[in-house]
Specification:
Elements (H helix, E strand, L loop, with lengths): L5 E6 L4 H11 L6 E7 L5 H8 L4 E3 L8 H14 L4 E4 L8 H6 L4 E5 L11 H7 L4 E8 L9 E8 L6 H24 L3 E4 L2 E4 L2 E3 L3 E2 L1
Parallel strand pairs: 1-2, 1-4, 2-3, 4-5, 7-11
Antiparallel strand pairs: 5-6, 6-7, 8-9, 9-10
Helix pairs in contact: 1-6
The chain binds 5-O-phosphono-beta-D-ribofuranosylamine.
5-O-phosphono-beta-D-ribofuranosylamine binds next to helix 1, strand 5 and helix 6.
């Protein structure tokens, strides 16, 4: 059963995760369509990528609004106009208010470049290197009001190599993100993943720490 047929992707920068999800929709690996790509940054590369994939896209520049609420109202208007039922954050660099999060609770995903709960926030790769960690990775989680702290759906792990710097580690983690994110989006679209009472369920079983993917 498809529970989420119309996806919106919100992104501020390059958009490589957007492209990975768009490609999976084109191949029907994800049985849904991208109804809208939104960027808050004029000229962001993700908009050029959306154009190339012939996806509906728009820029809603947060600097044109008096406050966060007004910016989000504009976004919510566009999402509702496009009948969006699953919102996918992919490098979206604005913090969302509770109001927005409530509107899409259980249908709002984010990808973060660390093995959460380690390293919420920025500079995750350098922080993993500085800590001498032996592995890093990416986490897809449901978005809840606390930053980078929503329930984890799935994680992809990579080994940290002795010769790694932040750039090489970021590149390896991103390659895994491009497999992980479309997979989790497919699960959501197919109704295999649910958020109930703050906990993640996959195929009607409770998952405690997320799925290794
Ligand atoms: C990804 O590394 C993701 O984990 C983080 O932002 C980055 C976005 O990259 N949230 P891209 O714009 O999808 O290339």
């Amino acid at each position: 059963m498809n529970t989420h047929g119309r996806i919106a992707i919100l992104a501020s920068g390059n958009g490589s995760n957007m492209t990975a999800i768009a490609a999976a929709c084109e191949k029907r690996t994800i049985p849904a369509s991208i109804g809208l790509v939104v960027s808050n940054v004029p000229g962001a590369n993700v908009l050029a990528r959306a154009e190339k994939h012939q996806l509906p896209h728009c820029c809603i520049d947060h600097r044109q609004y008096d406050n966060r609420e007004a910016f989000e109202e504009a976004m919510l208007g566009k999402l509702q106009e496009a009948s969006i039922d699953l919102v996918v954050l992919a490098g979206f660099m604005r913090i969302l208010t509770d109001r927005f999060i409530r509107e899409y609770y259980g249908s709002l995903l984010n990808i973060h470049p660390s093995l959460l709960p380690k390293y919420p926030g920025l500079n995750t790769h350098q922080r993993a290197l500085d800590a001498g960690d032996s592995e890093s990775g990416a986490t897809v989680h449901f978005v809840t009001p606390e930053l980078d702290a929503g329930p984890t759906i799935a994680q992809a792990r990579v080994k940290i190599l002795p010769e790694d710097d932040a750039d090489s580690l970021a590149a390896r983690v991103q390659a895994r993100e491009h497999l992980l994110y479309p997979r989790v989006v497919r699960w959501c679209v197919q109704g295999e993943i649910q958020l109930r009472d703050g906990k993640v369920w996959k195929d009607e079983s409770l998952t405690d720490d997320g799925i290794d993917a």
